[in-house]
Amino acid sequence: MSSRVEHPAAGYRKIFETVEELNEPIPAEVTGVMPSWLGGSLLRMGPGLFEVGDEPFYHLFDGQALMHKFDLKSGQVTYYRKFIRTDAYVRAMTENRVVISEFGTAAYPDPCKNIFSRFFTYFRGIEVTDNCLVNIYPIGEDFYAVTETNYITKVDPDSLETLSKVDLCKYLSVNGVTAHPHVDADGAVYNIGNCFGKNMSLAYNIVKIPPAQKDKSDPIEKSQVVVQLPSSERLKPSYMHSFGMTDNYFVFVEQPVKINLLKFLSSWSITGATYMDCFESNDSMGTWFHLATKDPAGYVSSHKFRTSAFNLFHHINTYEDEGFIVVDLCAWKGHDFVYNYLYLANLKQEWEEVKKAAMRAPQPEVRRYVLPLDIHREEQGRNLVSLSYTTATAVLHRDGTIWLEPEVLYSCPRQAFEFPQINYSLCRGKKYSFAYGLGLNHFIPDRIVKLNVQTKETWVWQEEECYPSEPLFVPTPGAAEEDAGVLLSIVVKPGAERPGFLLVLDAMTLTELARAEVSTIIPVTLHGGSREPA
């Protein structure tokens, strides 16, 4: 999996540049053979507007939300994209400036206002962004584009029109939720967000949105909190981007990257700070694993799992096996916040400078942690993990904590396996063999990787001056094999006659089956999903 590819031409800069939306779908030129069974839509979210007027957006997660769609039907492919009409986007376009603060870009009062108007603007309070550039997923029979705040945006997956803005705070006790929910077989959606718990301390609520309702009512209106987990610090919740779920348990990893709530409330409303300004790293807490039962729901306070510090954004899979919970995830070593290295000024540098910056950043690993469920006091000092296929350990200490050490499934300096996917419908919460990911070469996406989590064998697709996105696994209908299916990825090849294309790979071998090329550049996309044919 180690990438020896260099990018001296810095073509990757093109994926961080503004594009225009399309008035209508455009046809793609297909080479190769699309599987006859493959149809429906690939939906993706990402930033598409990187400046407004003379004001740039500074961070990778600041650009205004652009929704992409590749439609596949009878071997024919079209591509379409449209900006989501969020409040952040509409007001920015109307006033030709950044109006709502984003992840790493602050909004300031209109300079045309007089000094009194500007003064009172500062004290209006916190205006949270609805810039839903991170992911899109179904709730019931509808699709929602999301970021990580309390706002989600209902969209039409056919026309890509923006339908409505939804404030989750009206239905749930959360300040925001992650962009990576889990979906049960019945369609119920689970997620996690921070909240105010007992005695005005911060806590974490796992929430449930029921599946599509027979009476056609909105399932979001029937949302509920399932279980609450405590925070290690009263006013400093950890940043969260995903969580683990098995058939019977929830796993939440509380990392040492913290949100300073007092700084958030004070500096934001007075000085126009950004979300990034409110993060800080706790260099002494390490990392905590929290466990909760699913049904009946309850926090397992007796199991205090601890390990050394790491950043976590994406879980791969979590499953139960012989009295243990196995947690596979993409880790970044240490407590330094990885997002500090994702400012656009860093990512758009010359290649040698990009590499130097990545050398200073936390280093990536794919790790497996194992959490024992059955714990006895007399077993202090011993490794409690008895699974034969892993070297991960869990040792009970005298103070009652269980110290975890991982098995490393993949590690290579400055070469990350990230944006992981699995055969979700077959393997979520089950023992599995294969994960698929986007390979980051010093933070630049330049390959697609398949990882056998049992043998640690890897397969790679890579092409010169090509920049792929998160691969989506689509299973072959009726197939029994876990990796029978295809991977779909949007790839950008700057300078080519048709610089954007949908890549279709055989998920077993990572050999190319087909590509559908379009005559337009496509900016970086973050996450997304598929929609079956109507």
Structure description:
One of its GO terms (biological process) is retinal metabolic process. The radius of gyration is 23 Å and the shape is globular. The chain has 534 residues and is mainly β. A hairpin with a 2-residue loop joins strand 4 (51-52) and strand 5. It has one domain: Methylamine Dehydrogenase, Chain H, CATH 2.130.10.10.
| Poorly predicted runs | 113-124
User: Which class in CATH terms?
Assistant: Mainly Beta
Strand content: 35-45%
Major sheet size, sense and barrel closure: 7 strands, mixed
- The shape, in one word, is globular
Arithmetic mean pLDDT:
93
Structural class: mainly beta
Radius of gyration, whole Å: 23 Å
Overall domain count = 1
CATH superfamily: YVTN repeat-like/Quinoprotein amine dehydrogenase
Number of helices: 6
Number of strands: 37
What is the share of helical residues? under 10%
Termini distance?
38 Å
